[in-house]
Amino acid sequence: MKLLVLLSWPYVRKHKLRMLLTLAGIMLGVAVYVGMHTANLTIQSAFQRTVDRIAGKAQLQVSAGETGFPEDVLERVQSLREVSAAAPVIEAALATPQGTLLVLGVDMTGDSSLREYDLEGGGEDVIDDPLIFLAQPDSMIVSRQFAERSGLGRGSKLTLKTMGGQKTFIVRGVMKATGLATVFGGNLAIMDIYAAQAVFGRGRLFDRIDVGLSEGVSVRKGTAKLQSLLGPGFQVEPPQSRGAHFESMARGLTISINMASLFALLIGVFIIYNSFSIAITQRRGEIGVLRALGASRGQVRRLFLLESIVLGVAGSLLGVAAGLALARGVVPGLAATLQDVFGHAVSASEITISPPLAAFSVFIGVLASLVGGYIPAHAAARVDPVKALQKGRNQVLSEGENRLRRRAAVACIATSAALIGFGNGNAYFYPGYLLGITSLILLSPSMAMWLASVMRPVLKAVWPVEGALAADSLIQAPRRTSATVTALMLSLALAVGFAGVSRGIYASLIDWMSHTLNPDLYVSPSRSITAKTFRFPASMAGELRSMEGVEEVQPVRNARVMIGGEPVMAVSLDIGAISRRVRVKPVEGDRDEMVRLASQGKGVIISDNLSLLRNLHRGGILEIPTPRGVLKLPVLGSSVDYSDQQGSFLIDSKLFQRYWGDDTANLFRIHVKKGQSREAVREAILKRWAGSHEIFVYTNEGIREYILRLTDQWFGLTYIQLAVALVVAILGIVNTLTVSISDRRRELGVLQAVGGLRNQIRRTIWLEAVSIGVVGLVMGAAAGVVMIFFNLHMLHRDLGGLRVDFVFPYAFVALMTPVVVLCSFAAALWPAESAVRASLVESLEYE
Amino acid sequence: MSKWIAFLLASCALAQDPRQIVEEVQRRNRSQSQRYEGTLTVTSAKSRVTQKRWRYERTGSFGDSKAVLRFLEPPEVKGVALLVHNHKERASDQWMWTPELQRDRRIALQDRSTRFFGTGFSFEDLEERDAGQFDYTLLGQEKLDGQMCWKLEARPRQTKRSQYTHSYLWVRQDLYVYVMVEGYKNQELLRRIAYRDYENVKGLWTARFLEVFDTKRQSRTTMKLEKLEYGLPMKDEDFTLQALRRPL
Amino acid sequence: MIGLAQVSKTFTGKRDVVALHPLDLTIPKGEMVAIIGASGSGKSTLLNLIGGLDHPTAGVISVDGRELGSLSDDDLTRVRRDKIGFVFQFFNLLPSLSCLENVSLPLHLRGWPRQKIHDRATDLLRLVGLEKRMDHLPDELSGGERQRVAIARALSVYPPILLADEPTGNLDSAAGAGILTLIKDLHERLGTTVLMVTHDMNVARACERILQLKDGVLLSDARVESPAAS
User: Fold this and answer.
1) Per the CB 3.0–4.6 Å rule, which of A240, A642, B91, C144 could disulfide with C175?
2) Tell me, what's the ipTM?
3) What does pTM read for this prediction?
């Protein structure tokens, strides 16, 4: 420790910038990890908090996926001796100028036994006299916060967009800002459940029943009793489980966050490795003196490891702070995306800080720092005191070391290929993945050197002095360069990997949309077609059909149902009618037979990803729990369908209506008569329902744009991480250059002494930076191919079982080329200036 | 002489079986049908006064009757109706009809401790409960409002069915009608209902004025019975959900 | 050729150090001058000032009629590359470049055409006797050979002035003698003005004039009657 203060501190002070850059490397890596996880956690816990507060004293909740269930279930639940109170609930989210308003439909006559409605004005409130509240369907109770934000008071009118168009509600109560009313950032409103059914087009269904158990009845016993009473079509779960379902839906996000964080940290490791390697090269004299004075190898090693720990702790702590700031910035976007993609409204005003996450982040930050510092520390310990004290000798990465790396890389590749080629399952795939990446890292110094020597003649031909010197600078100092190049390669590989996958997904999505989403118009009850708030009554289909210019109307009802404890999207439609318009592309099964049997209700057509995720194939049986019992349907075949990340199945609407007692629709697909203008029909529909129903009519192009925008949003989140990864890599370039310049001060001095103009000096440095960039880019693109391969596999395996074709993102790489070149160039600006401004005399005498 | 009579009555009263008293109350109050218009006045602890009016129709014998309560005032609630089917052996079934929504809803058993629409009554208080659902104890006799009464304690046989652990009933010894009822939860008095202005209508002694005191909210609810009639011809089909849905 | 008027240099820092007290000096064209003095006497500072590598604290330096103080950084570089060749004690060759490339370096910087550069560099290496070592890297040469390459580089455009800072300081005596002969030979054949810092009296005596510095003050300025023919 004394040594650390004595020796390391002056060095740090002397190389403030580099230390800052190194610190930034760890900081950013940790920040991405903490930031994205905190954002995710914030949303998950906000969701859970909302669920908990809404659940009130309810110990169990009865639901049936997202489909809702008939009202009579309530009486059956209430009839149980184990149940002390059961209250039906409808939950819906409405867009208001004050943000999303969560509307809770409850039965006021009995709900207070589960939830406490703490109203302002004490005993004179509406809940105690629910008569008016119930008698008038426009009654609403709002939270104090919402009332304040919207300037409402008791008796005020509140206009909201509903299924019945603009509807005016009357505020008949204001809840105190405690407990339930704090849910959803205070944006909460309470309605009578039967009024809510009408307003949200729920028919005679409830979303959920909240259950309080009688005294002495355990949650387990209550669950068992209810489950056996209701059958497998219902989920009987404690409120906490809903958060878990939400979490499992967003699992894709968690995985991609983990991956990007891992890469950010890995890149951080290389920055640290780079910094320490450089420091050790520069401090060889000092190490030599230390060794000559009797320091043991262990002491030297410990000194450097200690330095990396100190740096790691500092960087990680800063990273945690930066990550929390990042999370604050990301949460609104993430919440909006999750809401758009999954249709679950979440409101999180405050981020959730998890001490274990923070502690773990510091731990991995320090670990990364230690890993990055280990090899240099080891090298420092091996420094030969005699050689170190001789002047002018540089330690060069030996050919032997390189050979060793190459051999290890080959071994990694072979093992990786064997694992992935012959192994089955994640236990083989992920180690294979890891080894694949490792081999890239191991190969990168050799690759970088090779590329630099390939580039040398080119550079020399264009800029004889500057070019040659720049290339030589790379070749001569592999320790200085290779780590940076590796970091850059990794970040670009990550970016290319993501870009490739997203390109692939877009390509597949567009292909799917073009043969599946072919109606002329879509009529949706919400702006977002994933939102579950509103539904259309079945009768609307007939009204649409009777409109002029409309040839065909296909109602679609989709909702997640729980199969095997995980949500699966049920898509109910008239399969016969749809198949006349859409040519289903079967992955498995015979198209005609599939369609024929499915339209007769004799089976389901499952999505390809469901088939993969559940290992379900043609001829298998899909057991679908419904409110009317388990529906066992044969799998007729599978087709490519991107309706849901966790899989979907097509079921004929007649069957669905029978088993779920639900004939509402989320969406109408409309085909316009030949020769009729889509726009005219669209206008007519909008006009027809203007004022009575709020509806959104999308054109075919509109819906495609909508889906692509949603996909953009989804990928947008990963771009943040990519950007950070790139920034870290660019920091690496700055780092390397500042070192390169201090290493080459004499060389640059000579260049000036023999007549190099300032611009010529600058150009050498710029060229060096750009060369690093280009080498990194080429290697990144190559590594990107490997990444795409792995990512597609991963997508296929773990993220929705999506089958996506390999597409190399040429456009992205073409876009990245100037970005990387410019960034490397920008990274060189400051170092180049500092080089030309350095004192010539000192440079020439520099040793 | 009067002392003698009083003594005789008293001894006779003491000898009375409490269940017999309650059954006698029910017997004397028995009518095949009833109709009245009630005016409810709720005075809250903060002296805010709200008023509601309803029409009440009942058919069938005590403890096994059916009743419809339809609100007439205030205008916001006009037409809202409550249908009660009382059962001898178990708690009643209750439905509510809200004309604006065109929906009926069942009011579940769990909810009967809640107040009856902002009044001092709970839903439970509006039920007719057959003597068979309770155990009674005669606690003695007291003079109340100048009338000699029996004081009885009633305990529900099935606790789940009542919000009260026990109630005290004061029954006028001359008319066999309730003068006061106090509902308790453990040692805490929840509600006190006083029956006043007894009047003989078609041979039935009926209280024309009720007063409920809600100890928790410190609110006072009075109910005045008007246009009271007994023995009207009423049809069972008027006491169904379908009938409820009919416009006023 | 080279003129210094009241030139002084003070290094400022925590403690100001006067490296050179005000000094007047004129070196006519074609002279071969040795600057001697103990370590820290200011001889390297003087050389650096004349070479335009450093700026004087006060005074005027003119080289070939141009006042260095009035020049911009790039103009100073141009004066340096056209008029002055440098030879350093530690050679300062770029290790990654071959001998030929090292010699070509200043010519490339001047933007000469390739063929001309190649011809000139070959000539120069021949001139210093290294025609067989052209494609070798500096690391593969002996100290003397490296210094020859450095001299060849310094002579790339046949500058009128050659500044040498301890050119033999890092060489054994045989190699040192060889280098001295080479410089003297070039001086005589090309008429180059040579200014050489040394602490070796034998080397100094080979020059025509010896300036002796001590603690930043010009102690003596003596002509050597018959310079030793080393």
Assistant:
1) C144
2) 0.80
3) 0.67
